[in-house]
Amino acid sequence: MNRLKLGTVQTMTVLRKIDTGYVLEKDGEQALLHVNETDKEHEEGQDIDVFLYMDKKGNITATTSFPKVQMDEYGWVEVVESIPRLGVFVDIGVTKDFLVSSDDLPLYTKVWPKPGDKLFVTLGVDKKGKLLAIPATEGILYREFETAKEDLLNKQVSGRVYHTSKEGSAIITEEYYRGFIHHTERKSEPRLGELVTGRVIEVKGDGTLNVSLRPFKKHGMIEDAETILQHLEENGGMIPFGDKSDPEDIRGTFQISKAAFKRALGKLMKEGKVEQRDGKSYLIK
């Protein structure tokens, strides 16, 4: 049985030098330190600290490059590749990229992380003993959170999405505050690991934030009006929506609330660009 703990930094002894690198030993177990995995010369009998993982052939491999994360230690890592049905690979700071399994990602691939996004992960093993990168749970992140102060109200914050769902998106800001973006406060669902910037609309009693990705009402009304005009132009000058339409139907089409729709529609009617008839809206040409 292998007594070397993969995914950790271990002190091993140089057993001998070979053409491709060094054979290391600890407690009767061996690992290969390839010449590409170290920037120094090592002598037989020397003790060195190395990070251990398994290569594609199943061999225990060592590197003197220490990763950003290891077993039971968390850190931010960058996504480098996404493979449908398999998951995403992240760069932890060593030669090998590590998989975040699809089992630990959202059900819908459209909100999977893309290259450049970042995840807060640790290393763990699956049932076969293979090392994987595992995203932090809410309980783990809770230890990282700072308590937000009331003076953040209406201030701009940026943060990474660490959980996303139909109900909303949870973020950890650059200052390590916990923020929540309700689905009504976003036009589209952000990706896991995406960096988003929004406005604080509430500082809660527990020191967490409610954040909106939508602009202030005045600016949002202009943007929403342009969206409605675009829909009218793309649908022959008529859309089956008016100020009495079902809120869910409005949100499903325009990704805005009924109140925001009515404000934008009122603006267009005041400008003489749109009129309502029989519960529908028409473009005035």
TrEMBL record:
Database matches in Pfam families: CvfB_1st, CvfB_2nd, S1_2, WHD_CvfB
Signal peptide segment: none
Limits of the S1 motif domain: 154-214
Top-rank taxon: Bacteria
PANTHER family: CONSERVED VIRULENCE FACTOR B
Family (UniProt): Belongs to the CvfB family.
Name of protein: S1 motif domain-containing protein
Species for this entry: Oceanobacillus caeni
Lineage: Bacteria, Bacillati, Bacillota, Bacilli, Bacillales
